[in-house]
Amino acid sequence: MEEKDFKRTLNIWRGITIALVIALVGVGIYAYNLFRQKDQLATLLQNQYQRAFRDLVTDVENVRILLDKAEVSASPVQCNSLMTQLWQNGHAATQSLGQIPISLGVLGNTEKFLNQLSDFSFSMSKVNAGNKLMNDDQKNQLGQLANYSTNLLNELRTMQQDINADGIKFGEMAKKGLFHMKDAGENVADTKFGGIEKQFTEYPTMIYDGPFSDNVIEGKPKGLEKEQEVDLKKAEERVKKFIGADKVGKITEISSGKGTINVYGLEVTPPDGDKAKTVFIDVTKKGGHVLWMLDPRAVTEKKLSEEEATAKAKEFLKTQDFGDLEETFFYKNDNTITVTYVALEDGGVLVYPDQMKVKVALDNGDIVGFDAMQYLKAHRKRDIGTPIISQEEAKAKVATNLEINRVRLTLIPMPGDKEQLCYEFRGKCKDNDYFVYINAENGNEENILRIIKEENGTLTQ
């Protein structure tokens, strides 16, 4: 073979080889892209299944809370609202259940229970809309639904624990499609399926913030509307009084906060210059009030009792010239205790919108946290007025199955940036503690809160 032909042949083979390499690389890239797309799709499905399960548990949790509230409601208007919410949550739970990859018919009894719950609630809402309450038979049905919902909620939580222990994923469940479950009783399915994440439910509001802590009053801060602007120097003077002049070395403005309440955002370094001991504090530009303070130091031990710590908080507020305040609730965490104080007006009316939180270190009683946001938004001179109906008349509006152990007058926040004078009845029903609020003007049942006591504090639902 001539050299010229040999080179031509060699070039041909080289071309073929290069083409094959390019083709193989292309196939590899294509396969990799397919793999990535498949993996991304699996992740997407997994996230969708997890969300559906979390929604299911949240809906059932809400159902259980609403049923508890309905058992102690003596107002057609309030009961109508609760029944409407039950209908909505029951329907939502059914839809969430249908999105979880479980074989058809396996959770038939659970689905049936949720549908019946929704239908019953819708029917009762129409009864309440006619200004009527449930009869004894209907109340018994309500109690049975509450028992079944408790069982279902417990089973859902057990499912989550089982899945976490076994490491089974929703995607694998969807792929296998062979989950078989046994019925536990008439209305609840006992099975092993669940989500990956440990925390999926919407936990109740911490009552140490006050029963109405989530109802933060919107709009302009009423407590500051008539106050005058202060300059940075005045703000620094306020900081020294609040923290203690002996603890203040250098004050630096690190932000000029603008929002619902405009503030000087300040950083306070101690006299020894140790940055690790820096305290952060916001002072309002109107009036020069401390809005918020945080000392982020670690509290490594507990020496003070709860009583000693709350006494420290009360003494601190007294030195800061706040008005009459009453301790309501507290919560312990990381060797600190956060105490909520609520304003007292007109001879002892508890004004829930006016509340502040003080955080005390349990090692030496230092104030390591403070939050007056809600207090400054709401506090002002009010004409609270006097009740139109008597305490006994209000008591007659409370459900007869609530064993009342305390009554007091309170001012509570209402929708539309309003406030209402109410009788607060604290009582017990079926081992559950409740707050029931009866309008002191017309006897309407304005709100119901269920109380849950925990080791570190108290919860309300």
Give an account of the 3D structure:
The protein is an alpha+beta fold and 461 residues long. The protein folds into 3 domains: 170 residues; 147 residues, no CATH class; 70 residues, Roll (Nuclear Transport Factor 2, Chain: A), CATH 3.10.450. Helices cover 41% and strands 25% of the residues. The strands form 2 sheets. Strands 3, 4, 5, 6, 7, 8, 9, 10, 11, 12, 13, 14, 15 and 16 form a 14-stranded mixed beta sheet that branches. It has a two-stranded antiparallel sheet with strand order 1-2. Strand 6 and strand 7 form a beta hairpin. Helix 1 packs antiparallel against helix 2 and helix 1 runs antiparallel to helix 4. It is flat. The chain starts with a helix and ends with a strand.
SSE order and pairing:
Elements: H1 3-71, H2 76-98, H3 108-129, H4 136-166, H5 170-176, E1 182-184, E2 188-190, E3 205-206, H6 232-243, E4 250-257, E5 263-269, E6 279-284, E7 290-294, H7 306-319, E8 325-333, E9 336-345, E10 349-361, E11 367-371, H8 373-378, H9 391-395, E12 403-414, E13 418-429, E14 432-439, E15 445-453, E16 458-460
Unreliable residue stretches: 174-209, 214-218
Shape: flat
Mean pLDDT: 77
Termini separation comes to: 94 Å
Task: State the domain count.
Answer: 3
Concise overview:
By secondary structure, this protein is α+β, with helices and mostly antiparallel strands. The chain has nine helices and 16 strands.
Features of the shown structure:
461 residues; Nuclear Transport Factor 2, Chain: A; alpha+beta; single chain; two-stranded antiparallel sheet; 14-stranded mixed beta sheet
